[in-house]
Amino acid sequence: MKKKFESIYDKLVVKSLTFILILFRVPSPVFGQSQPNPGTENWLTSPGVIGTIILIVIVVVIAIFILIVRLSSFIESMNKKGVVKKKMEFSEALIGLDDSEIDRILEQRKAALAFKLSGNELGSDESASDTKGVISKVTHDPENPLVDEKKKTKLNLEISDQLKKIIVWYLGASVFWLVFGTLIGQYVGMKFVWPEMDSVSWLSFGRLRPVHTNTVFWGWASMAMIGLGYYVIARTSNINLHSYKWAWRAWVLINISVLTGNILLLAGINNGGGEYREYIWPVALLFALGLIYTFLNFYKTVENRKISEIYISNWYILAGLVWTIVLVIIGYLPGYQDGLGETVIQGYYMHQGVGMWFMTFTLGLIYYYLPSTLNKPIYSYSLGVLAFWTQMLFYTLIGTHHFVFSPLPWWLQTVAIVFSAGMFIPVIAGTTNFLMTMRGSWGDISKSYVLPFFLVGVIFYFVGSTQGSLQAFRFTNFMWHFTDFNVAHSHMTMYGIITFILWACVYAILPKITGTEPRQFYVGVHFWLAFIGLFAYMISLMVGGTLKGLSWIDGEPFINSVVLMQPYWVWRAIGGSLMFISHLVFAYNFYVMVKIVKPINQEASILFKHSNV
Amino acid sequence: MFNFHKNHRSLVIVSLLVFMGLSILIAIVPAYQMQETQPLASMQALTSQEISGLKIYTSENCMACHTQQVRNIEMDNVWGERPSLASDYYYSKMRLDLWRQSPSLLGSERTGPDLTSIGKRQPGPEWHFLHLYNPRIVVVESIMPGYPWLFEEKNENEIHDNEVTIPVPKKFLKNKNKKIVATQKAIDLVIYLQSLKQASLTQENPEPFFIPSIKKKEATNTSANSSLPDGARLYMSTCAACHQADGKGLAGAFPPLAGSKIVTDENPELLIKIILQGYDARSEYGLMPGFAEQLSDEEIAAIVNHERSSWGNKAEAVKSEDVKEIRDYINTLNQ
Predict the structure, then answer these.
(1) Do A205 and B36 touch (CB under 8 A)?
(2) How do residues B154-194 score in pLDDT, each as one tens digit?
(3) How many angstroms separate the CA of residue B113 from the nearest CA in chain A?
(4) Strand order in the sheet with B179-182
């Protein structure tokens, strides 16, 4: 009877997904049909590899573009040196003048200097005042001769002190977890090069690795997203947040969850080693409660909104919260998680953790912060809606692509691979939407410290997601599965997309609500260290991972693949160090932005007083 | 009702219900199905000692670097005789206790080798203890962390007879006068690792197969032309973990092959017999398992020739027929 139900179920699944039917035969629950494995001589020309290389090239091109824009303004300043030279020649000519000529010129000049305006030439006795707020800063002494002076934030937003405090504290906690989590990551990365750095049980690789991943996931990215989300929700609903108390409760719950979870992991107490659900269930429960408080708070705020439409950002943010709450519950409930049941859930959970939580929520943030930074509307609202529904339909089905060729059912693997390709739709829709919104504002990139972060994040959204789809193909699985390539991919996405976007949003909003801007030089240092670091990290592990996979296919002794990775692990550690240093700079910038919270009007009046406008 | 742009309630409820529906379809129902899988007839439940070993394996998060799945592709053939089946995980992937769920043994990264049949590849406990204390004692290039907290340092006179002393070479000792003794945790973990073997299939179960690689097939065609496989490579993957890549072995644990009389003897019979049957005649060294089931005649001949012609050893090559002869002789003795 049970067998019969199972086969009926299998068939139902197949029927409900009819358009992929042609791609696989009748599903067998254990293992599938034979598909001869392609030769590896031409691995370089396989579609997955070519696609990945093209995608990497795109990032390089964009990086070069940003660099050129910056350089051109530098070169411009160099050109000015030519002007100086001309002046020298001119003064030499002056020395050569004879006395009578000099006297004549001096007399002329004296008369000119003695000239005085009556004060009424413009026909007014009124004093000058900048009534439209056009002038934001007056200086006779530009700070930075190398690159363009960045525009100061034009708008200072008045928000309630309570909301401001919530946002600052959420972001503050997230900055702390970022620095802590990547310090651990950096240390773990160095262990690949010096495995004998320590022999303390609490610092061993197996225990530290989940501390790194869970801290940057639940501590850094989640706290930053929620903090930035509070502003979006309140602003786009045109109403105060439903409950400040709930927001604080969620803050406490999530932070306690990350703190205790990490201590338990260090002590060797984990949930069973499944990635991103290493925290045992009581700890995860605290996190889930934090999410539930946040969701109810957001939902109530949207419910009471003063505008009839629900802004697209709030679609993503509300759905991200709902989906993640469901996800945590499914990931931790017992009953179907013995044997390979756990593995099915693990594939589902770890992929949805990334897709339904970080990606969905962050997309919601881009839909608000990108247009508001550019001071123009999003290119297409409908594309955003299309991307929303396809994100939900396709992302949910692709978890098993982490277990291709495993003993999980072949049909489950095939569905995952097919819908991984389906992910092209939301990704292309989203990328197009963001790039078209940025179109016409490329010139602003050299004048803004926020836009480069957005640009890199959006490009990585396209590159990282598309590359992930290619990586799900069966051939690329031969070569890359189980290798360090996966680690490169996850940093390309969680760092290249999520983290860069979150930084963009932080730099976009914090100065506006605190009234204090970071030093643009340090924002630049932050950007370039993080970007170059990520690139070194990514490329070294991609190349190393590919060589490792090829060595395995070749049947070489396993230890050879460990030896061949050594130089790539060194480069990874170097890239990681740059990234970590950039986080220290970011933490400093954050400190500068929040340290003195003074009302903006006062600052402006002081400015006007001192600059004789 | 379904105006998602204006109706927040229907927006949230629809996205919740569709997501839950898809989740049930793609995760929960397949999970229930996989859980129904029964163990193979030849499998046995884990002993309590193996279970406590598995718990240490989990709490040290060994699955961060080690997989336990042989995929059904030929490159994974080195990790097991057959692709892993859902049934293989019946006993090992049960919920651990109230706080911890079923361990994620399949893993997602192979920074270290797959452990599906480590119990067969490295059957001797001596190797495991040394390797756990400090992996670089036995594998120089290894980057695995050592687990010294699973061992105790003791003075010679404090050691009881029933305790397991580990022959750690002097240069790996912090305190040169002390001896290293395995704690119960280390013993349990090693017993768990030794228990990792693929269960044999009975007739009721269909024989699973690897998806063959075209390239590999060509390779076997050429080896049919009486040329032997690459002995150096086979030595590295089968023998070097104990006897070391330089053939010098490890004092107190594994005998050297460089300059060994057995290896360079004119008559290779004893050497081939030891490889086929294993060896436990010398108490100062650990037990060597037999490789009769694991290696073919051609592979053994290739390894023997590598050993007889490397590290200063100079002895005549053997043929696969010689190995076959000795194997047949042993088989008749056993009958």
Answers:
(1) no
(2) 998 888 888 888 888 888 888 888 899 999 999 999 999 99
(3) 7
(4) B151-154, B179-182, B165-166
